[in-house]
Amino acid sequence: MSLTLRQKVAAILEGSGKYRKVAHSLDIFLIALIVFNVVAIVLESVPTLTQQYYQTFFYIEVISVGIFCIEYLLRLWCCVDKLNFKDKSKSNFYIRLKYIRSPLAVIDLIAILPTLLMVFFTFDLRFLRVVRLMRIFKLTRYSRAMQLLLAAFKEEASSLMAAFFIMSLVLIVASCGIYLIEHDVQPDKFGSIPAAMWWAMATLTTVGYGDVVPITPLGRFFGGVITLLSMGMVAIPTGLLASSFADQLRKRRDAFHEAVHHALVDGELDENEAEHLEALRIELGLSATEANQAIKLMTSERAQSLYCRHCGEKL
């Protein structure tokens, strides 16, 4: 069955089927463009370079935004044929609306929105430059590590919110405590609870800038207690993310192993099954070496299960 133009574009953008090589080349081009664009934005912040190469920076911005706009519109157009959004029970408008709200689509929109808004509104160039640097997050689409990290954040969202809520309570308690102890001795540094929050934040995050420190014995004792408490508090979100990150890796490997197991039910891989596994490998972000090892291992185990372990005869 021949594919429509929209289905072909979706396959290229997804990197599936026979369009994997074309998609890989497109991904390399877009990654290079994003990196080049970010470097140009950073260099544009140097006044002397801006004055000397203003036209060059302008053309880089216009061409880059033009390409990013085309990419965004193509992804919006063909998202109805993507596996993650395809739903025959929903209208194309609803599917596209769902795609617009997805994290990667929001990042793509942020990459082009500042320049498009600049046509209609006047912005502080420093603010605009910082917002344009958000384009570096477009690399999330091509980075396995970033996708795993985002999945880990999503998986542990409730636990992380609980941890940050506890840290907020400790922050308030620490600010109030050091304010009561030190505000009479150091009114310029601990004159109010909001001012004391600077010290509490630096202490809880174990940064300890040293610009604001307690000088009374009770204040130093209280600061030591907060410092010891903060070591455990900071470790909670870190531990949650590390555990979830490893869990996401395990889930992706298990999903691929399960697909290989189903493909080897008949004892061998045909061309269509191998193509499906390769597409799944790319989607899950597994390396070719890791995928080949999994296939070889399960093929070997499958072959061994066909023979009696005692007599060696074929079952």
What would the keywords be for this entry?
315 residues; mainly alpha; voltage-gated channel; Volt_channel_dom_sf; extended; Four Helix Bundle (Hemerythrin (Met), subunit A); 2 domains; potassium; single chain; Helix Hairpins; Ion_trans_dom
CATH architecture classification of the largest domain: Orthogonal Bundle
Structural class: mainly alpha
Query: Which regions contain 5 or more consecutive residues with pLDDT less than 50?
Result: none
Number of domain units: 2
**Text of the CATH class of the largest domain:** Mainly Alpha
**What fraction, in percent, of the residue positions are helical?**
over 70%
CA distance, first residue to last residue: 40 Å
> Main sheet?
none
Number of helices: 13
CATH fold label of the largest domain:
Helix Hairpins
